[in-house]
Amino acid sequence: MVVKVAEEPYQRYAAKGISTARIVNLKVPVLKRIGKNPVVYSQPINLEESGDSLYTESVFAVLTGVKGQRIAGSKTDYRDLASTGKQTGKFIYVLPVTSVTDDDVWVGYVRTGRKRWIAVPCPRPSAVYNRISLRNLERAPVSVAARQKIEGLGIPMFNPEYFDKAKVY
To answer: pTM, whole model, 2 decimals?
Structure first.
């Protein structure tokens, strides 16, 4: 993962000695051009400048269950959430419960075309939206462990679990 910026900001950052950006929990290089390696996925994000550093907290994940080796749930909903994020300079990826670990980099899914989702390394998110689509998937041990890990890491989670009608009424 790298941050690519246009010539003018790159020169300004270089003059200040800024060569990396912090994306939530990761430090990544700041470049004005990317070499000959193919780009698998590109996402514009909003960067903030603070003194001699660049950072963004604009990374969010949509937590989903898994069925076999595939992500579960409504790909249309995931597409719409990611599209809204892209329009507002935020990176939103789909996070299977099996990818929540202690590591700094998690494996998330991004949409690269019509009905085409690929796994890419992603920084830990600033917040997580729980979209595990079925109660039995949400109750699975791997899902429970993922939600506990997210809570333990201090990452805010929205829609943490299904409503229990007996408790609500």
So the answer is: 0.84
* 107 three-class SS: strand
Contact 129, 81 (CB under 8 A): yes
- Integer angstrom CA distances of residue 89 from 48, 95, 112, 122, 139: 12, 19, 17, 16, 33
Q: Residue 58 and residue 4: Cα distance in Å, rounded? A: 16
Res 164: pLDDT: 56
The Cα–Cα gap between 166 and 98 comes to 30
Tens-digit pLDDT profile for residues 119-145? 999 999 999 999 988 888 888 899 999
Sign of the Cα pseudo-torsion (168, 154, 75, 85, in order): positive
| Whole-number Å distance between alpha carbons of 154 and 8 | 36
Please state whether beta strands 48-50 and 53-56 pair in parallel, antiparallel, or not at all (unpaired).
Answer: antiparallel
